[in-house]
Amino acid sequence: MLKLDKIIKTYNKGKNNAFEALHGISLTVESGEMVAIVGTSGAGKSTLLHILACIDGYDSGEYYIDDMVIGKLSEGKMADIRNEKIGMVMQDFALIEEFTALDNVMIPLDFAARGKKKGKKERKEIAIKMLEMVQMQNFADKPVNSLSGGQKQRVAIARAIVNEPSLILADEPTGALDTETTREIMKVFIDLNKQGKTIIIVTHDLTVAEQCSRVIKIEDGVIIEGN
Ligand SMILES: Nc1ncnc2c1ncn2[C@@H]1O[C@H](COP(=O)(O)OP(=O)(O)OP(=O)(O)O)[C@@H](O)[C@H]1O
Ligand SMILES: [Mg+2]
Fold it and tell me: What are the residue boundaries of the ABC transporter domain, all occurrences included (predicted)?
């Protein structure tokens, strides 16, 4: 279970360009839910997702994952949680452009304890299986900078799920995709959800939001619907 309790997040805190992006967000997401976060550009969706992903901190309030108080954890422990419990698809993909698709997908395996127990050959097999899930196996050896936007997005999804995280967060994962590819990608998320994973998707696409069991609407840093 994830729980946010009155989270406030300010960018450039203490400077004259300080900006409070989240004004006290309270939200509970049960394990196994599939949730959409919608809202206009600049509403605070990515900010919220980065906090949920333990990529960014917050000023006040508290974030709990399974009763663990995230704000109290050391940097090292946060990194362990990021690697082992959470898969994040960033809005800008955050892939290493010069690396191949396969090498990008293998990166989280090289860091997580799950990967360390495995030899290189086995890690490669796992990564290829992930690329198959998003139908990118034929592009495994292509450098990411030679792929289309939709192909990059699929590689980013494969990388996010390679450590079998229990929580998958995706920031506009279908933003650059056509209707058919959007359907395929949503099938991947729905299948993962059926396996019991908790999924949170930020989206502008109503057809994507409709496939989630709950829609949370955020406006100007406040949740106005769905919590
Ligand atoms: N690094 C930053 N420094 C300063 N302000 C920021 C930073 N990141 C975001 N903001 C501001 O915080 C607010 C929320 O941004 P956020 O990226 O969370 O919006 P969003 O809902 O994801 O928008 P979009 O749909 O365009 O991706 C915006 O007003 C934005 O300008
Ligand atoms: Mg965003």
Answer: 2-227
